[in-house]
């Protein structure tokens, strides 16, 4: 049995009086690619933010590598291998591609390894190599998404959290992003993917969770979910 890397237990998060997450349980095991799907406002992003400690929990807990993340700072978690690519990407727009990648390695001190990994990222994302001295803010949305993923990978994560990586991208870029997510997973990085593109997300995942109004309403094998009539009707537009 693979180790559980991430365990969310009875998680509740509110914004003032609004209960956004109402007791979520989910688990991510080593090597898995998990997709968390659900409609607008279901609470997916809120769940992701609580997992990385950037939003406080009202109740419940998040365990990473068997320990509660409560009281741990973002730096501690990244250092321990939990990296997140936020919705909207958040690249450093006034830095070049290469500088962004170097920033991604801020928890590391192995200079030679960092230089090697930058080259490795250029191998995975040739577009970034072509533009390595360009300011990130002048890149297209899809290119910025690739940069954000590459930057997160520079921290050598065990678990990568991706919040809607395909949002707002052209169909070709969407294809490329899903291809890269699958490749990164195949290289051994454990992934929790939040997506509104439920069909694509389930196609590449091992398991899936469906979130609705702050709760997990369904979970299971991703391929089975793809053929489930209820999932198809509610989330795959059929
Ligand atoms: P989307 O796919 O649209 O990003 P989501 O599933 O990620 O949706 P969340 O962003 O987690 O959903 O939002 C869950 C609920 O919490 C929504 O009702 C939203 O309006 C509310 N919410 C999110 N952020 C805040 C905030 N900062 N203040 C108040 N309410 C918020």
Automatic annotation (TrEMBL):
<dbReference type="GO" id="GO:0015807">
    <property type="term" value="P:L-amino acid transport"/>
</dbReference>
<keyword id="KW-0547">Nucleotide-binding</keyword>
<feature type="domain" description="ABC transporter">
    <location>
        <begin position="6"/>
        <end position="238"/>
    </location>
</feature>
<dbReference type="InterPro" id="IPR027417">
    <property type="entry name" value="P-loop_NTPase"/>
</dbReference>
<dbReference type="GO" id="GO:0015658">
    <property type="term" value="F:branched-chain amino acid transmembrane transporter activity"/>
</dbReference>
<dbReference type="InterPro" id="IPR017871">
    <property type="entry name" value="ABC_transporter-like_CS"/>
</dbReference>
<keyword id="KW-0813">Transport</keyword>
<keyword id="KW-0472">Membrane</keyword>
<dbReference type="InterPro" id="IPR003593">
    <property type="entry name" value="AAA+_ATPase"/>
</dbReference>
<keyword id="KW-1003">Cell membrane</keyword>
<dbReference type="InterPro" id="IPR030660">
    <property type="entry name" value="ABC_branched_ATPase_LivF/BraG"/>
</dbReference>
<dbReference type="GO" id="GO:0016887">
    <property type="term" value="F:ATP hydrolysis activity"/>
</dbReference>
<keyword id="KW-0067">ATP-binding</keyword>
<dbReference type="InterPro" id="IPR052156">
    <property type="entry name" value="BCAA_Transport_ATP-bd_LivF"/>
</dbReference>
<protein>
    <submittedName>
        <fullName>ABC transporter ATP-binding protein</fullName>
    </submittedName>
</protein>
<comment type="similarity">
    <text>Belongs to the ABC transporter superfamily.</text>
</comment>
<dbReference type="GO" id="GO:0005524">
    <property type="term" value="F:ATP binding"/>
</dbReference>
<dbReference type="InterPro" id="IPR003439">
    <property type="entry name" value="ABC_transporter-like_ATP-bd"/>
</dbReference>
<dbReference type="Pfam" id="PF00005">
    <property type="entry name" value="ABC_tran"/>
</dbReference>
<keyword id="KW-0029">Amino-acid transport</keyword>
């Amino acid at each position: 049995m693979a180790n559980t890397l991430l365990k969310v237990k009875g998680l509740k998060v509110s914004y003032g009086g609004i209960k956004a997450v109402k007791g979520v349980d989910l688990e991510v095991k080593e090597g898995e690619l998990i997709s968390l799907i659900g409609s607008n406002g279901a609470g997916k992003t809120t769940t992701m933010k609580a997992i990385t400690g950037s939003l406080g929990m009202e109740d419940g807990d998040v365990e990473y590598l068997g320990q509660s993340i409560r009281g741990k700072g973002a730096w501690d978690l990244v250092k321990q291998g939990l990296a997140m690519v936020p919705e909207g990407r958040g690249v450093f727009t006034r830095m070049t591609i290469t500088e962004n990648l170097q920033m991604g390695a801020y928890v590391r001190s192995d200079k030679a390894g960092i230089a090697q990994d930058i080259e490795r990222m250029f191998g995975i994302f040739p577009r970034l190599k072509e533009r390595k001295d360009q300011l990130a803010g002048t890149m297209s949305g899809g290119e910025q998404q690739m940069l954000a993923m590459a930057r997160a990978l520079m921290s050598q994560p065990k678990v990568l959290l991706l919040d809607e990586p395909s949002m707002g991208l052209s169909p070709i870029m969407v294809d490329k992003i899903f291809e890269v997510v699958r490749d990164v997973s195949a290289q051994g990085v454990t992934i929790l993917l939040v997506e509104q593109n439920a069909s694509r997300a389930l196609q590449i995942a091992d398991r899936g969770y469906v979130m609705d109004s702050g709760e997990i309403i369904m979970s299971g094998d991703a391929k089975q979910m793809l053929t489930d009539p209820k999932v198809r009707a509610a989330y795959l537009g059929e």
